[in-house]
């Protein structure tokens, strides 16, 4: 109710500020004309009095009366012109008044229908003070950011916020947060790897020299960390050092437990590097490979083209096939169709979402082939 009272007072004040000048213009003009006519009448009376007392001659009195008469005539012509302009401007004033009154009425009507006047205020401070279990991710991030603005030396706060930034795809912010956490809390393998991963994702899957140094620093703290070794192998592959990349991946594979989430990514990376990819849905079987070896180069190329097209079509019908997407990307690269390979990479990322584990796996896998989604 208070909202509507305040809105009504403000609307009334704004309307009066426009309406009063429109209504007062004609009244002011009429008052000025009446005053001038009264002055001229007084002057005529004074001339008659001076003539009777002999202060002026009859000829002088006649000239003075004639001058005042001309002024009265001019005033009359001005009034006639003013009346004409008033007749013209009256319509304008009417439309102006209607417009001034229509604006608040229409605004109130639209707001009452589309707005939410009854929703209680939700200031940022109150939203940030909510129970974390009842808050959205955006609200939690905003709460952490507000805290760190006031307490930029809170290393623990940066340490908590950095992986959240990485998960939601704010890679540049994740790099800043990891750097602050390392500076304030000290370097750990997890923080170094998180920093490196944020750099790689921010660069579209390219492992830069700076990111390599970060992963190498992580290995000094945890020598057998599979993620750091995987990204370093990816860097070697992107530099064309294929044998070193394979050796690094084989070393990682030998130390991984059977249930490690990194085992599948390492196997796929090795398959793409050594030229013997593991079979996947829609890909050629061992029998297909044997049959292809007996064909001519032209026939073999046509057979591969057909199988790749078949795989592409199956992925359109069943897009949730992770291995199928990696197989398709590699097949296009082998055929020299880099544009189609990049398109397949982007399609696969779109299916699972840019922040999904599958999308990161696709990006890392494509990187081993010298391919990035941002090219």
Structure write-up:
Residues 145-261 form the Cytochrome c-type biogenesis protein H TPR domain. Residues 273-293 are annotated as: Disordered. The longest helix has 57 residues, at 58-114. The protein is built from 16 helices and no strands. The protein has helices at residues 2-52, 58-114, 124-128, 137-150, 155-167, 171-185, 189-202, 209-221, 226-238, 242-255, 262-274, 286-293, 297-317, 322-334, 338-352, 357-368. The protein folds into three domains: 2-114; 121-223, Tetratricopeptide repeat domain (Serine Threonine Protein Phosphatase 5, Tetratricopeptide repeat), CATH 1.25.40; 279-375, Serine Threonine Protein Phosphatase 5, Tetratricopeptide repeat.
Strand-helix topology:
Layout: H1 2-52, H2 58-114, H3 124-128, H4 137-150, H5 155-167, H6 171-185, H7 189-202, H8 209-221, H9 226-238, H10 242-255, H11 262-274, H12 286-293, H13 297-317, H14 322-334, H15 338-352, H16 357-368
Helix pairs in contact: 1-2, 4-5, 5-6, 5-7, 6-7, 7-8, 8-9, 9-10, 9-11, 9-16, 10-11, 11-16, 13-14, 14-15, 14-16, 15-16
The tally of strands reads 0
Whole-number mean pLDDT: 74
User: What is the straight-line distance between the termini?
Assistant: 58 Å
Percent helix, as a range, is over 70%
Helix and strand succession?
A: HHHHHHHHHHHHHHHH
SS-derived structural category? mainly alpha
Structurally, the number of domains stands at 3
Low-confidence parts: 276-287, 289-293
Determine the strand fraction and express it as a percent band: under 5%
Shape: elongated
Number of distinct helices: 16
Q: How large is the radius of gyration? A: 43 Å
């Amino acid at each position: 109710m208070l909202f509507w009272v305040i809105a009504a007072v403000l609307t009334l004040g704004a309307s009066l500020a426009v309406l009063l000048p429109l209504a007062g213009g004609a009244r002011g003009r009429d008052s000025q004309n009446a005053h001038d006519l009264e002055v001229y009448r007084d002057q005529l009376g004074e001339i008659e009095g001076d003539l009777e007392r002999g202060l002026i001659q009859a000829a002088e009195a006649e000239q003075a009366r004639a001058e005042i008469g001309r002024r009265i005539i001019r005033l009359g012509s001005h009034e006639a012109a003013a009346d004409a302009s008033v007749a013209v401007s009256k319509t304008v004033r009417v439309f102006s008044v209607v417009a001034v009154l229509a604006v608040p009425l229409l605004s109130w009507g639209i707001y009452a229908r589309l707005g939410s006047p009854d929703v209680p205020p939700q200031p940022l401070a109150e939203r940030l003070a909510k129970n974390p279990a009842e808050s959205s991710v955006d609200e939690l991030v905003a709460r952490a950011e507000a805290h760190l603005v006031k307490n930029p030396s809170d290393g623990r706060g940066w340490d908590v916020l950095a992986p959240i930034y990485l998960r939601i795809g704010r890679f540049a912010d994740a790099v800043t947060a990891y750097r602050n956490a390392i500076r304030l809390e000290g370097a750990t393998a997890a923080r170094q790897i998180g920093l490196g991963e944020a750099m790689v994702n921010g660069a579209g899957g390219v492992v830069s020299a700076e990111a390599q140094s970060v992963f190498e620093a992580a290995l000094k703290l945890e020598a057998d960390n599979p993620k750091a070794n995987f990204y370093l192998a990816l860097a070697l592959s992107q530099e064309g050092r294929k044998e070193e990349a394979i050796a690094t991946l084989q070393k990682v594979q030998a130390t991984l437990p059977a249930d490690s989430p990194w085992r599948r990514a390492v196997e796929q990376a090795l398959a793409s590097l050594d030229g013997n990819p593991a079979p996947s849905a829609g890909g050629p079987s061992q029998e297909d490979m044997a049959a292809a070896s007996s064909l001519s180069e032209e026939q073999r190329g046509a057979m591969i083209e057909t199988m790749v097209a078949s795989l592409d079509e199956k992925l359109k019908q069943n897009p949730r096939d992770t291995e199928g997407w990696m197989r398709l990307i590699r097949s296009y690269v082998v055929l020299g169709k880099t544009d189609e390979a990049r398109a397949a990479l982007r399609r696969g990322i779109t299916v699972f979402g840019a922040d999904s584990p599958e999308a990161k796996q696709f990006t890392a896998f494509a990187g081993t082939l010298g391919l990035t989604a941002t090219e």
